[in-house]
Structures are given as C-alpha cells and as structure tokens.
Design a protein that fits this description.
The complex is a heterotrimer of chains A (350), B (695) and C (479). Chain B is an alpha/beta fold and 695 residues long. Helix content of chain B is 29%, strand content 22%. The chains are: A mainly alpha (350), B alpha/beta (695), C mainly alpha (479).
C-alpha cells in the first residue's frame, strides 16, 4: 500500500511538472510577452523597444531556463549595468553588495510566486485570498451536491423501472443537460429579477465574500451543484441497478434479509465504489463551474481571478492559478485512487 | 429446534405448476404442468438441458421470479402450506430458515465487500434472533462441518481470498446455518473442477444425511444425479417428461427423450467405431415455438402424427413401478429394450506418419508478484514443464487436465501466439517453437488451426457467418477471386452440415451447436492438418454434444487430420481419443494409449480423476477417491512432485522423495509413460477404479 | 400594429394547460407516494394477478398515462391552432407558423422511419422507445431549425441588423415603422443592441449544428485511432498514451480554452499546428481501415485507398492551409476554401478536449473485447493487429460508442456555449447561444427575454441528446 501511494505520488509530480511546463510555455510565447511589454511600458513601443524591455526583464532567456528559475531550481537571473544590479530575486535596482545578499533561487518552491500586474499585489496573497473564498464555495457545493446525488441515485437504482426511478432519472437527466450558465441565467431570471417578481435571492454574490448568507450565497452554490448532481446521480443509479441484480443480492434476499437491510447492508457499499471515483474526477468540472458561476454572480474568488488574469495577460498570476488548479485536480485524483483501493476489499487485500 | 417435528408428509409438493415470463410482446411459458414431491430426507434430482425450465422451478419455489415472472397456475406447498397464500413476512421467515438455496457461481453469490463471518452469522441472527456471539459460535461449527481448514481465519476473510472450492463450501455452510428442512441446489458444482466437484458432492451428501435435510438437486449431468439423488425428474422444454426413482428412470426408462439422452452421452460402453453415440436430431424448441402436443415430438423416433401432436399430453403412471410416471402416449407400445440401430460400423483409422513432435517444451512466464501495486519483484510461472510427445496423422490425442494445468498455454505456444522458453516443436520436421504467428508462412498457419470452447464467443457477433469464413479463406490465400471463395465457403457449410442459407445469417441467429459448427468450418477452411480443439463441446448441451463430436470425428476421418482434443471430461476422452496425455500443474503426469491410461497401473492423479468423473450408469461401480484440498496455484507450486499435496499414495514412497524431487518420466510397457516415484510393485497392486458390476 | 400577446385568440387553452399540468404533477406525486407505501408487487398466481390489476397502483398508473397524454394533446392543440391562426394566435401562433418547414420535415422523417423501423437496425429500434423518440424529436427539431435557418427560412429578421427603437423591447413588440414585406413584430423581443432575439436564436442553432457533430466525429477518430492500439498492445505504448490523456484530462477545461483561444496564441499559429495533427487522424484511420481489410487483395486495396484517401487528403489540405498564416504549404489550386480563423480554433480546442475521454472509453472496451475467442481466432489465422483492432474489435464496441457519441455531442454543445459565454474564439457579433446568453445576462435582472430563449434552446438540445443516448442504450441492451 505504501509503495502504491509512493508510486502514484511520483506519477502525480511528473504530471504536475509536465502540465506546469505546458502552461509556462503557452503563457510565455512571444506574442504574450509582447503584449505584456506594451501594457507595462507603453502601447506605442517599437519592436526593438519591446525586445530590449523584455531582455532587461529576463524574458528573452530560453524557455526551459526561465521555467527552472520560475520553479526555483535554477538560479535567478541577474544583470549588471552602470547603475547597479537588477535580477529576478532583487527588487528594483540595487548595489552589488545588496545584490549579494539577495537569495540565489527565488521560484515557487521558495514561495516566491511573482507579482500580479492586474491587482498590483503579490501573487501569493491574491491566490491565497481568492482560494479561501472559492474553497468555501466548493465546500458548500460538495455538501449540497454529494448527499443529494447519492440519495437520488440510490433511491432510483433501488427499484429499477419503478415510478420513483423514472421520476428521479428524469430529474437527473434534466440536470445534466443544464450547464451552469443556463441554469444560472434561469435562476437569476426567476428568483431575483424584478420583472417576474420572485425576489427570493440576490442576483450577485459579491457581498457573500465577506458575509455569506442564504440569500446571497444559495443560488451560486445551487447552480454549480445542480450540474454535478445529475451526473453523479446517474452513475450511482447505474451502479446501484447493477448491484441490485447481482447474484449475491439474490442470495441475501433468499436468506430472508428484509429489503431495507439488503439495500443498506449488502448493496450500498458495493454500489458506492464506482460513484466515489466519479465524484473525485468531477473536480476539473467543478473548477469549470466555479469559473462560470463566479463570473455570473460576480463572486470574486479563484475563478474570477482566473478570468481577470487571462483576460488581462497577467502572466505570473495566470501561472500561479494554473499550478494551483492542476495540483488540486491531481491531489483529488490521488485521493480517488487511494479511496478506491480502500473501499474495494477485492483490491486492498491480495 | 426441530422443524420437522410438527409436520408429517411431503416437505415440498409442487402440483401442476405453470410459470410464465411476460415480455412486452408476449407471454413466454417457462414451466408447464409441473408436479413433483419431495419427501422428508429425500433427495430429488431435476435433470434437463439448458432452457428446459429447471432453474425456474427452483425460483418458483423460492417465490423469487423477478418482475416479469409469474406463476400462472398450480400450487407449491411447503410442509402443507400454499406458498402463494402466505404473507411477505412469513415468506421472508421461510427463506433461508426453512428453504435454503445454493447456486452455480459461488463467487457471484457471496457479497464481495462483506466478510464471510458476517454473511454467515446474518442468517441465524435474522431468523432465530440470537446474539452475535452465539451466531459466531454457530458459524464456526458449520464451517468446521463443511471441512474447511482454519475456520476462524475463514470467517475473517473476504470471499475473493478463497479458492472456488472453498467459496462453494462457504455457500453450503451459509445454506445450512439455520438447519433448513429443504435445500435447493442449482448446478452447485458446474463452475468447479472435476476433482473439487467430487469432494463437494460428497460433502453435500454427507451433510444432507447428518442434518436430515431434503434436497432438490438441479443439474444437467445425469451422472451427478445418480450419485446424489434418490429420485429423479427429467425435464424437457418446460415440462417434466419422466419422474421416478433413480433405478426406474435409469434402467427402465419410459420416455423417448430420456432414452435419447442416455444414448447421446458417452458412457464407458460407448466406442466411436463400434458403438457410436446417437445424437438427438434437430434443435431444442424455443419457448414460443413449441410444437402442439408432445414437445419432443419433432425430434422423436417414435413420433406418430395425429396422436403425438393431437393435444396436451398428461403424465401417466407406469404400472408396476413405484411413483414412476411418464409423459408419453405411446410408452406402453414402445419396446424399450430393443437394441440401438447401429449404422455401419466404421473402421478404425490407422495413424500415419508423425506430423507434430514436441520435445522438452517449456514455457515460463514472468509476472509481477503483485499486479496492482507493482514493484520490482517478478515471479516465474512455469506454465509448461518439459512437454514431450508425438502426434501422428489421423490420430486423436486427448490432453486432459483441470484448470491451471497448462493445456491452454500449450495451445498458445503451438499456435504461435506465444513463443517457447525452451525445447522444440517440430512440424513436419521443421522447428516452429520460436516463430511467432506473424512470422509464420500462410501454409504453416493454415495447417495448424484451432476450435474454441465457448460457442457464444467464437464468432464475431457483427459479421455474417459467410463473411467470417470467406475472410479466413482470403487470409489463407485460397481461391482465385471472390466467386471462388464464395463457392468454397458454401462447400464448407455443407461439410459441417449447415444449410447454405446460413451464410447470410448473423451469429446471434444461430444456436450454440450451430455456432460451434461454423467454428469448425472456419478451422478447416485452409485444409488444416492439425486441429487443436479446446473443450469444443463442454459448453454445449448433452444432446448437441454428441452431434458436434460426431461431426468432428467424421471430418477428421475424411481429412486425415491430427486432432489435439483438450478436455477435462474423461468420459468423452475415453470415447473418442486414440491416445491420452494427462497434465497437472504444467507437467505431463501420464501419457499412453487410451486403454493404457484408463486401466491400471495409473498415475495417482489419473486414478483420482477417473474416480471423480460422474458416470450415468447404474451398473458401474466406482472406487471412491476424494482428493483433499484444491489445485495449488501455478504461481506457487509445491516443491518436488506437483501432485504430492493431494496424493493418497504418497506414503508408499520411501524417504519423502515426493517432497524433494520431481519424479522422472518412466516408461512402462508399450510406451506408456508415467511421472511418478511409486515403485513398480506398488503400481502393480492398483486395481481398476471403474468396474462394471457383475450382471 | 398592436403588440402581440403570448396566446392571442387561443388564450382559452391556457386554463386547460394549467389543469392538465396540475393533473400530471399530482398523479406522478401520488404514484411515488403509493409506491413507497404499498408493498412490492409479488405476482403469485393468475387469480392474485388479476386482483392486483385493478388495485390502486394501476389506477394511479393509468392516471399518469392519461394526464401525460392530455398534456401532449393540449400542446399539440396550441401548435396546430397556432399554425392555422398565425399571428392571431399571438406569439405562440406566429412561432408555430415560422417553424412550419421544421414541422413538415419532422413529420416526414418520423412517418418514414416508423414505417421502415424493422429494416433500419438500431436506428429503427429507437422508435420502440418513447424516451428515445422524444430525444430524437428534440434533436432533429434543432437540426432542421439550424439547417433551414442557414437558408434564411425561419428567421424573421436579419440577426445582425439593428432596428432603432426596439432596444430591449419585450416579446411581441411591433416594429415602429415596418417596411413592405418586413415581418412586423420582434417575436421574442429585441436585445440590448435592438436585434431580433428570435432570429438570433434560430441562427445560433446553425452554429451548433455545424460545429458540434463534426468536432465530435474528429474527437472520435483521434480517440479510436489511439485507444485501439493502447488497449490492444498494452505495455509501454499504453502507459505513454494513457499518461498523455490523463495530462489533458487534469487540465481544467476553461484554463485550457483561455490558454489556447486567446488572439496572442492564435497569432503564433499553435492552433493551426494542432489542427494539422488532429485532422490527420481521419486520414490515418481510413487508410489503415482499408489497408488492413484488403491487403490480401492488392488491386482492390489500391482502388479503395485511392477512392477514399484522395478526396480526404484534398479536404485535409484545404482545412489546415490558410493563406498568409504559418501553414501555407499547399499550392493555391489545392486550397479550395478557408475556414474563418475563429471557428478553426474553436473546433481544434473542442476536439482536443474531447479526444482523451474517447480514448479512455475505446481503450477500456478494447481491453475487454480482446480477450474474446473470436479475437484469438483471428490471431490464430495470422491476421495483422490492425485488422483485428479495426474489424474484429471496433465493430463490437459500437454500441457503447454510439451512445457515448450522442452524449458527447451534447457535451460539445455545452463546451461551445462555454466558449461563447466567455467570449472566446467566435466573433463578438456571432449569434451563437453562448455569446447571446453572455450578452443577455448583463441586464438580466431588468430584461429577461434576451437571455432566456438561447438558454432554453441549448437546454432542450442537450436534453434531447441525453434522452436519445438513453433510448439507444436501452434498446441496444435488449438484444
């Protein structure tokens, strides 16, 4: 088991490195840098001016070197000119003595995530703040989504073909067919708009950043959860119906076990093995939903920051956001693998 | 608690039971007018081919027919109470407590995510309301009763940690936890190996006696029923056709189907040249295509139009016999003792020159010690160990062994799907053991072909039958153009006695036997000279088995093919093979002519195997040899002789040689080879396992 | 001109509609309650079964059925009366009349299909399943709408032209000064640029219909061509390809879109290189497919290869080649058409996101099917691996793949909407549903009507695809 976790972690780190490199490469393509130079310097820069500005900022080094510096495994660049020394790890322009004091490595491994050009702040502070806000949102979504979805799936799959099954299956199909931007729009229209008149909730969740209440926070949570509910519920239902027709359920029935106990004691654990992995693999999708919903409800979280960073060519922030989201996804995948092994005695003990 | 105390009479009484399944289109009758009674302490066998409704009867008794099934007529009385009239709660109280059921697939009937102890303890806890401790004690007791080693460890493990035989014992234990008065066994040993099956059957018999349980034993195997039951009921296409005591039905049968069934199974008296099997003509009718009158009519030798198809035929008692009934209007007129009409007696074919020679063939696999968690360690699995034999033209060489004996690996190496680790395979004198199939030339490939075991898997479901045969012809470079090949394909269909119209059918429109025939046609499409038949008939019903076997023999006779017949069924091997090779855990333990292998001296494993195979003949007396334990895993073979863990002759070998050394191959008279440490003197003492009782 | 009300002269149907809907809801509720209260139906024998047939369970069951039929009936009444009365029946009537070509096409399609359903294989069986039929009807409704819309048949106004005075006007608003021959109302109102919402919705369906199925086909080609060998050969190839697939799957889709679809990245030509790789897969697929089948008969082989591959190759060159961009390799004569840059990028990124999932499905199916005896039979007669993969394995994996195909078109539609929602790739004035929703949402709390129609359209199309997939799955399992 220990070896298994170790190997999976190894694969995860390799994956994370590959993915961050891809993001790094894409964000550091020349047109992006050119745009960066123009927004930071001025918009009428000549091509030469752009190049020299980029050169002075260390952007003209080979991508792999830059990647190493950003990661913190290669020494940060320094450059001497007549006025002093500038460098990746040096703020501003300092004298040679001060430069010697500065650390050699400054990448994300050292906790130096860079500076956001949009928010004019350290990337690490922005990311931690936004992540906190989104983390709360995600938690609420999971709390709402997972139990609902599992309950719907189990109830529907318990008696295949019954009316309960058919009604609940229709509900779950409907919800998988409704992406967040559709359900969000409909919810806002129905529950918040002045024209329909049902002013039950608030159309924006900006205030929920500081003071989440049911009124301003429920709609965003519901919108994200709804899309996932259908998918997980359908998986659970499929897995449940399969288990309910298994021979060992018949064995239990013919042992005289009551229907309730068959479901609770015999079927449930076996039926939840498959959906468990599905829930964990939902995370890339949840992130997606988060971005849409945060944009839609103007909730200034992680997803909103992503849109801002990407829309404004804020390279360092975008990189940081990518790294964090990739790591979140990979960690959940790792948990799902381990959990699967744990839930399934057939694999655990062999 | 004796559940029999307050009731005197038949435990189970089924009277004129009819069960139907309802689909959107129509009602499909599965069981019609079925009656049987089980007396206390009696074991009743229910025999029939697949689809005859025998399992439906069992589920009907359990009142568990699913959403579509419905009892449309008749009654089922358990201890005098009509099961249809009791409430759901009472029914739940009977299930597991008074009637218990054992199924075919032990692995599937145990909950994979629940410890065995819990699954066992559940039964008395529900029905008798006893505490956990007491239930645990009971579970321990019963697990000891089913002769499982180390009961406490067993109770604490998950189903997948046990072998198939152990799992089936657990299922039996579970059924006996509440000491039921009726035990229903639905093909309880079909998924098990023959030697394991023998042990389980013996266990069931003993426990039935010990607990005084009545049994309803469902099986397709007449031999097994003979060994376990007191009475038997033969079913055909949803109806009981004959019912009576074992002796009456086996020796004084009064229904044409029963007779045909006995003539189509390879009993020791059958012989492929002198007394060939008689296949039942035609096919099993589909439930909605049953003929009027007698269901067996269209396939019956005694059919008389106007009488047999006139109307419903009822069960009639056979005068003189005890509770012996048959569903045949003509049973009093038929001369049941008339000898079988034997067609022309075929001449025994003479084996020709050596076509295939194996010399010290070895095949080892390296596998990761732990598939999921990986890791550097690898284990060597010795799938084939020093295989040497010769096969001649028009000879049938049977390869016998249970699961894990290496027969499939051997086939793969011969076909070129794997390459050998060591040794050589000579085809017409040239080596092919290191040539994978991609590197073989077309002639070599078409010369060595294979017939597969599972008829439902052997044909590509999305291609027409004709197309699949034509494709084989294309690959083997046969025929100038498409028209040629089409012609040749139709001839091949003729060869396997299928109508030419089948060329345009999809495989799903064919029955199992017909699919197997297409498989044979495909194998012979390139004029194969060596055909490996991997259990070609074991998945087919008995009545179809005979026909397919016959076909295979006939083609072999005409084409002078060398047939390598892989099987675990010694009856059929004895019937059709010229020479036999017995394998155990990758080793050839015995090799010789059919007569040599089937008569003493035996290898101890062959002896046990012979004793384990159930034979449906009351005049046969078998010596009872039950092997302990299961077949060891090929990943983890025992030291020394592979069979030493289960051998009953081990004590006859001095110095514990069996534990230390793999025995050498010894040649007895006339090329009969045995891999055993036993001295000649001990081998001399062996007596035949199967004896025909003195008339 | 007067503004149109929703139902006009057929307003008398409204209470009926309410009534039937309420009946349906109540009966479904009653059924669910009953099935929870009553014990499981245990069919014992004929007598008891007949008794059960008149029990409360069946009462409710038939109530649900009749209520459902009543709802359908009223909906049909709306449509038919609307068709006859046109604008006199209000907005609904006008809409029903505008969609006339679609109704005709749908009725024809269903009539022909139901008549021939026994001869049409799996497609025909679809008409045995009510769920599948509803799904298919929804899907075909939008397909026909998109198709006719592309020929300017259903729309009432030009989706791009702005009419003064109609900014954010409610549904049914008449044009202030209609010209001769011009449709006199904005049926579903005007958006914030005073464009006709209805026409934009109809045009938007064409955007989906032309991109989503094609992109899904490409994703399947890529997934199949890579998934088959990964599953069949296993080993290092499998490890490598699975790693790549997991790599893409671990990316949050939006991030990927933001990285791929920005103008800066497009300027580097990266999407075009990706297109060059992804679009090559159909060529490889069909080449291998034909070659493996006919390699025993060289003449037939060359003929078929030429017939299939030459047009494909020309298409391929035209697709990836674009004047003045990084990929300008083909001679002018071979570059028949250019696709607008935005669409190519959207297309590429959608294919890229979808193919790893298809890869995983195909790989899993292959792993399962390759253990079958007919695969072993093909091996023992010396078939080449690609023949086995494409002709023995793939056809037998078709059931789950067709089902997934339908689901995946729906998923692609959602992705396209997401792209539009974030204003990525497609031009800003594009009428596609995602962009329209995005524009409409800004004033959502005051004006509902611009955002709701495209949202409902997208919902119903994806729902139709899901129902269709469910119906197909059910029917294909019945064999």
């Amino acid at each position: 088991m220990g070896l298994f976790i170790l190997r999976r972690t190894g694969v995860m780190i390799v994956t994370a490195l590959c993915l961050t490199f891809i993001v790094f490469f894409l964000t550091n393509l020349y047109p992006n840098l050119e745009k960066l130079a123009k927004t930071q310097g001025n918009f009428r820069m000549s091509d030469e001016a752009v190049e020299s500005w980029l050169d002075s900022q260390g952007y003209m080094q080979p991508t792999i070197v830059k990647y190493g510096q950003w990661l913190g495994v290669a020494p940060g660049w320094t450059r001497e000119n007549e006025d002093g020394i500038t460098g990746r790890c040096i703020t501003g322009q300092v004298s040679a003595e001060a430069a010697a004091q500065a650390p050699t490595f400054c990448g994300i491994l050292q906790g130096d995530w860079g500076y956001s050009t949009v928010f004019k702040d350290q990337v690490s502070t922005i990311v931690s703040k936004r992540l906190g806000a989104t983390g709360f949102l995600m938690l609420c979504v999971l709390v709402l989504m997972v139990p609902t979805a599992l309950a719907i799936g189990v109830l529907a799959g318990m008696r295949e073909g019954s009316m309960t099954d058919r009604s609940l299956s229709t509900v779950s199909i409907m919800s998988t067919a409704t992406p967040e931007y559709v359900s969000g729009v409909i919810f806002i229209a129905v529950f918040t708009s002045s024209t329909v008149g049902l002013k039950w909730f608030k159309g924006t969740a900006t205030s929920a950043m500081d003071n989440p209440t049911f009124e301003n926070f429920f709609l965003p949570v519901l919108t994200i959860a709804l899309y996932g509910v259908g998918y997980i519920a359908r998986m659970t239902r499929a897995s449940m119906t399969e288990v309910m027709t298994a021979q060992y359920i018949r064995t239990a029935r013919l042992k005289g076990v009551s229907f309730r106990n068959i479901v609770v004691k015999h079927a449930l654990r076996n039926a939840l093995i498959a959906p468990f992995t599905v829930i964990m693999l939902q995370f890339p999708w949840l992130l997606n939903g988060v971005v849409i919903v945060e944009t839609l409800f103007n909730y200034k979280g992680f997803g909103w920051a992503l849109v801002q960073a990407a829309g404004n060519n804020d390279i360092e922030l975008l990189l940081a956001i990518s790294v964090v989201s990739v790591i979140v996804v990979l960690v959940t995948q790792l948990i799902s693998d381990i959990g699967y092994v744990f839930l399934n005695p057939r694999i655990r003990i062999s | 608690m004796n559940k029999l105390a307050d009731y005197d009479g038949p435990i189970l009484e089924i009277d004129k039971l009819s069960i139907s399944f309802f689909t959107r289109l129509r009602e499909i009758p599965a069981v019609m007018d079925f009656s049987v009674a089980v007396q206390p302490g009696e074991a009743v066998g229910l025999v029939g081919e697949s689809g005859c409704g025998k399992s439906t009867v069992a589920l009907g008794v359990m009142q568990d027919l699913g959403k579509n099934g419905r009892i449309v007529g008749g009654t089922i009385k358990f201890k005098g109470r009509d099961l249809a009239e009791i409430s759901a709660d009472e029914l739940r109280d009977i299930r597991g407590n008074e009637i218990a059921m054992i199924y075919q697939e032990p692995m599937a009937s145990l909950n994979p995510a629940m410890k065995i102890g819990k699954q066992l303890m559940e039964v008395p806890m529900i029905h008798e309301g006893i505490g956990e401790k007491e239930a645990y004690q009971r579970a321990l007791e019963v697990v000891t009763d089913v002769r499982l080693p180390d009961p406490e460890r067993m109770l604490n493990s998950y189903p997948h940690q046990l072998s198939g035989g152990q799992q089936q014992r657990i299922v039996i234990a579970m059924a006996l936890m509440s000491k039921p008065s009726l035990l229903i066994l639905d093909e309880p040993t079909t998924a098990l190996d023959v030697t394991v099956e023998a042990a389980v059957v013996e266990l069931v018999k003993d426990l039935g006696k010990k607990y005084g349980t009545s049994m309803l034993f469902i099986s397709h195997n007449l031999g097994l029923v003979l060994e376990t039951c007191d009475r038997v009921c033969v079913m055909y296409s949803g109806e009981a056709v004959e019912r009576g005591s074992i002796a009456d039905v086996f020796d004084d049968m009064q229904h044409p189907y029963t007779q045909a069934l006995f003539r189509s199974i390879p009993l020791p008296s059958a012989d492929k040249n002198a007394h060939p099997l008689v296949a039942i003509p035609g096919n099993f009718p589909l439930p909605h295509e049953r003929p009027p009158g007698c269901n067996f009519g269209p396939r019956c030798d005694y059919f008389e139009a106007g009488r047999c198809d006139a109307g419903d035929i009822l069960m009639e008692n056979v005068p003189g016999n005890d509770r012996h009934a048959t569903r045949c209007v003509k049973f009093k007129e038929i001369d049941w003792n008339a000898p079988v009409e034997v067609g022309e007696e075929k001449e025994k074919t003479k084996p020709g020159k050596v076509v295939l020679k194996m010399d010290n063939l070895k095949k080892y696999y390296e596998v990761a010690a732990n598939a999921l968690f990986g890791g550097g360690e690898t284990k060597v699995v010795k799938a084939n160990e020093t295989l040497s034999f010769e096969a001649r033209e028009s000879e049938t060489l049977a390869i016998v062994g249970e699961s894990g004996c290496g027969k499939s690996t051997f086939a793969k190496v011969l076909m070129g799907l794997e390459t050998a680790t060591e040794g050589q395979i000579l085809l017409d004198g040239s080596n092919i053991e290191q040539t994978p199939i991609e590197a073989r030339d077309t002639t070599t490939v078409s010369d060595v072909q294979m017939v597969f075991q599972n008829p439902f898997d052997t044909l590509n479901p999305s291609m027409t039958v004709g197309r699949q045969i034509i494709r084989a012809l294309e690959v083997f470079d046969i025929g100038e153009n498409d028209r040629d090949r089409k012609q040749r394909m139709l001839e091949l269909l003729d060869l396997v006695k299928l109508p030419r119209a089948f060329a345009d059918r999809m495989p799903r429109q064919l029955s199992g036997g017909q699919k197997q025939r297409v498989g044979i046609a495909r194998a012979f499409s390139g004029g194969a000279r060596i055909v490996v038949a991997d259990e070609p008939v074991s998945a087919l019903d008995v009545s179809v088995q005979a026909a397919v076997t016959d076909l295979l023999m006939e083609i072999q006779r005409n084409e002078k093919t060398t047939l390598l017949f892989i099987s675990h069924d010694l009856s059929i091997v004895r019937y059709l093979s010229d020479r036999v090779m017995v394998m155990y855990l990758g080793h050839v333990v015995e090799l010789g002519d059919t007569d040599q292998v089937f008569s003493p001296p035996y290898h101890p494993y062959t002896e046990a195997l012979l004793s384990a195979v159930p034979i449906a003949d009351t005049s046969i007396q078998k010596e009872h040899i039950v092997l302990e334990g299961d077949i060891p895993s090929a990943m983890n073979p025992p030291s020394g002789c592979p069979f030493q863990t289960r051998c009953r002759w081990k004590s006859e070998v001095p110095g514990g040689l069996c534990d230390i050394e793999v025995p050498p191959v010894r040649t007895l008279q006339d090329g009969h080879q045995i891999k055993c440490h036993l001295s000649d003197a001990v081998l001399e003492q062996m007596t035949p396992v199967i004896k025909t009782a003195a008339e | 001109m007067d503004p149109l009300s929703w139902t006009g002269q057929i307003a008398f149907l409204n209470p009926l509609m309410m009534l039937t809907l309420a009946a349906l809801g109540l009966s479904i509720l009653a059924w669910m309650v009953l099935s929870a209260v009553l014990p499981e139906n245990r069919a014992i024998n004929s007598g008891a079964a007949e008794m059960m047939a008149s029990g409360p369970r069946d009462w409710v069951a038939s109530a649900v059925r009749y209520a459902f039929l009543a709802v359908i009936g009223v909906v049909l009444a709306y449509l038919i009366l609307g068709l006859i009365l046109d604008t006199k029946a209000g907005i609904i009537g006008a809409l029903a009349r505008q969609f006339l070509p679609v109704w005709i096409a749908l009725v024809l399609l269903f009539a022909i299909s139901i008549n021939l359903k026994r001869k049409l294989g799996l497609y025909g069986k679809l008409f045995d399943s009510p769920i599948g039929m509803i799904g298919f009807a929804l899907v075909m409704f939008w397909v026909f709408t998109g198709f006719f819309g592309a020929f300017d048949m259903i729309i009432t106004h030009d989706p791009l032209s702005q009419l003064s005075g109609l900014k954010n006007k409610v549904p049914g608003t008449p044009l202030p000064n209609p010209e001769e021959g011009q449709f006199a109302w904005y049926l579903l109102g005007g958006d914030n640029l005073a464009r006709d919402v209805f026409s934009r919705m109809v045009k938007g369906s064409w955007e989906v219909v032309k991109i989503a199925p094609l992109a899904t086909i490409f994703a399947f080609m890529v997934g199949i061509t890579l998934g088959l060998p990964a599953g069949y050969f296993g080993g290092r190839l499998d490890t490598f390809l699975s790693f790549l697939a997991n790599l893409i799957l671990a990316f949050p889709v939006i991030l990927l879109f933001y990285l791929l679809v920005t103008p800066e990245i497009v300027a580097t030509g990266l999407p075009q290189y990706m297109a060059a790789i992804l679009f090559a897969f159909p060529l490889i697929f069909f080449g291998v497919l034909i070659n493996s089948r006919f390699h025993t008969q060289p003449q037939k082989n060359y003929l078929w290869l030429a017939v299939v591959l030459i047009p494909l190759a020309m298409l391929y060159l035209s697709l990836i080649n674009e004047k003045g961009s990084v990929l300008d390799i083909a001679p002018r004569a071979l570059d028949f058409f250019d696709i607008p840059g935005g669409i190519l990028v959207v297309f590429v990124s959608v294919v890229f996101v979808n193919s790893p999932t298809v890869f995983r499905i195909v790989r899993g199916l292959t792993l399962d099917i390759k253990t079958r005896d007919y695969v072993a039979a093909a091996q023992t007669r010396g078939e080449r691996p690609w023949y086995i993969m494409l002709w023995e394995v793939l056809p037998n994996a078709r059931g789950p793949l067709i089902v997934d195909f339908c689901l995946r078109i729906g998923y692609t539609t959602i992705l396209l909407g997401t792209l539009g929602f974030f204003g990525l790739g497609l031009p800003p004035e594009s009428p596609d549903w995602g962009s329209t929703i995005n524009e409409g949402r800004k004033l959502l709390s005051i004006y509902l009507h611009p955002a709701i129609p495209p949202a409902m359209a997208l919902l119903s199309l994806v729902l139709g695809l899901n129902l269709l997939a469910d119906g197909l799955r059910e029917e294909s399992l019945k064999d």
